[in-house]
Design a protein that fits this description.
This protein has a single domain, classed as Topoisomerase I, Chain A, domain 4 (Orthogonal Bundle). The mean pLDDT is 92. The protein has 124 residues and is mainly alpha-helical. It has 5 helices and no strands. It starts with a helix and ends with a helix.
Length: 124
Amino acid sequence: MDEKGLLELWNVKRTQIISAQMGPTIMLIAILVLAAIGAFDGATDSVRYLAIGIAAATGILAMITQYATIREAQSLVADLQKLEQPSALSVKIAASRSFLSLTALAFIVIGVGIFALVVWAVLG
């Protein structure tokens, strides 16, 4: 694959990571609003567990998508590093492998932390 194709694929991967965050973000907003207005205070346990389960499923699926996209982007970075005369942009992107690894770790740590806060907000 040539440099232009690799850069286009890089942009696709970035867009996929961003898009994968939309579902969980909307879910978290909904849970925050419901918790803020006290909707979970009078809810049955089954409704509370359902809210937690939906939040967990949404978050886990998003993290899987994000992690897979990051792994693919890491392979793309390796291909960019092999170019003979890369542009400045390609050199910069090719140097981002450690940043991608840090991003994957951050998704997991932040995801677990947010899930703990969701459980706390729903169960009170």
